[in-house]
């Protein structure tokens, strides 16, 4: 886990990229029904704006309240693994909530069916949480933490 604000920022940049890329691929796949090169192209083209939105949401809206809530849930003697899992869950759930709205707005901007916003947003939340939470806990989290610490050993990014 990051140990200061600079490490936290670098870690957030890395984690957001992995999560947004994967969830973009997943969501485009869900809307097309097949995994093709066009799905890759569409997800890649939409990545910069989705990534920027996720990064801003993570850094300015979700992170502080999610971590505060997570640490209220944890006893002082909680193991590092339990802390990582709790913080990850508390981060993923609000990010899914907000980014599912982003996805709904993106889809509806093409169809102009704005009366369907709440339905699309709600179904996006359900579809995304079942992918984002396990992906974060089992794949993205461990991968990004390992790569982060390999690139930036403890103490190399100073506060």
TrEMBL record:
Lineage top rank: taxon: Bacteria
InterPro entries: DUF2798
Pfam families according to UniProt: DUF2798
Species annotation: Enterococcus xiangfangensis
Keyword field: Membrane, Transmembrane, Transmembrane helix
Residue stretches spanning the membrane: 9-30, 42-62, 83-105, 125-144
Keyword Acyltransferase: no
Name recorded for this polypeptide: DUF2798 domain-containing protein
């Amino acid at each position: 886990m990051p140990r200061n604000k600079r490490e936290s920022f670098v870690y957030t940049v890395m984690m957001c990229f992995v999560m947004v890329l994967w969830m973009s691929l997943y969501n485009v796949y869900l809307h097309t029904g097949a995994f093709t090169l066009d799905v890759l192209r569409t997800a890649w083209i939409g990545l910069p704006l989705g990534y920027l939105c996720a990064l801003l949401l993570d850094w300015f809206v979700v992170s502080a309240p999610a971590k505060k809530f997570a640490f209220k849930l944890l006893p002082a003697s909680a193991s590092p693994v339990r802390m990582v899992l709790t913080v990850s869950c508390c981060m993923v759930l609000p990010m899914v909530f907000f980014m599912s709205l982003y996805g709904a707005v993106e889809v509806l901007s093409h169809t102009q069916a704005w009366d369907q916003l709440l339905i699309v947003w709600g179904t996006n939340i359900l579809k995304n949480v079942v992918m984002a939470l396990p992906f974060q806990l089992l794949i993205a989290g461990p991968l990004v933490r390992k790569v982060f610490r390999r690139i930036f050993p403890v103490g190399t990014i100073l506060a």
